[in-house]
Specification:
This protein has one domain: Aldolase class I (TIM Barrel). It has helices at 2-11, 14-26, 69-73, 118-127, 147-158, 183-199, 219-228, 264-278, 293-302, 311-316, 320-334; strands spanning 45-47, 50-52, 56-58, 79-85, 98-101, 106-109, 133-138, 164-168, 206-210, 233-236, 257-260, 283-287, 306-309. An eight-stranded parallel beta barrel has the order 3-4-7-8-9-10-12-13, surrounded by four helices. A three-stranded antiparallel beta sheet has the order 5-6-11, with no helix packed on it. A two-stranded antiparallel sheet has the order 1-2. The chain is α/β, with parallel strands linked by helices.
Amino acid sequence: MFSFLRPYIFSLDPEVAHDLAIKSLKANILPKGLFEVEGEETLETNLFGMKLPNPIGLAAGFDKSAEVYNSLFKFGFGFVEVGTVTPKRQLGNPKPRIFRLEKDMALINRLGFNNHGSEIISKRISNNHPNGILGINIGPNKDTQNKEEDYYICLSRLSIYSNYITINISSPNTEGLRNFHDQKEMIKLFTGLNKIKKEKRINTPIAVKLSPDINDLDISGIIELINKYNIQGIIISNTTDSNRENLSDVKKSEKGGLSGQPLKDISTNLIKKFYKETKGKIKIIGVGGVDSGQSAFEKISAGADAVQLYTGMVYKGPGVVKDIKKELISILKKENFKNIRQAVGIST
């Protein structure tokens, strides 16, 4: 059905098409059985001590305001991450702010954390219990005077409604956000997060979402702090604001974060580097260019415990999750693996 509708969808502005998708998903009428696959038990895995039916997750950015996560679970995702959520409602950057690079199977976005805000979103989730593992991605408002404080507000307000919280320090579309990759800034942020967790007795696991544009020399220092401050997960990676030189599409010069196929090898190589140094002791979620069983397997064999996608669904439709799972099951059989967990880190 998607291949039939795709020319119409791609004739629309990307953000209009996205808004239409959210409105359609609100009806929540698709039968779950449509997306089920045989033999999925071989894909069962664990993330932050929780059992996942499979390691394929939806990345933050699609369901920014937690409006349709239960419809998305029906597509067969093993987990869904909503957000990025900021303390206060935010409209984001001026439009147009999403661009399809069809020749490169990529997107560029400069949305700027547009979302309904933490109060509305916390009420929404509390009134609509998630039918699966739900992560909430949090970040600061654009006009905030204190970015750290915004993370603390969101952690305090949203942790009770999520299975894990992602600290987004890596979007290229919020000025100064990536400064948190600096050791001193990271120490300050992680210290504050732990203080809030202790004061409010929050046990929700925390993951940090990193930039693909970090220097290799910074990896060891980041891992040291993640260990020291008991951060349970690393998401590798967010979009890149560079790596444009090999792109073909005329829109390649648009400002914003690049996602999709051009990010695939960049994020996979970064996963390998982090996995080698963490020795599998910290959970890694791999993101960037996942749109097939093979691309998911590459990230898992590089050291990712689970993967996430977004751009892959834009180009291949909601059936992409089912296709990935079927192909992954086939790869596992071929490689004589009884379970997907056996494949984590085998190529490092």
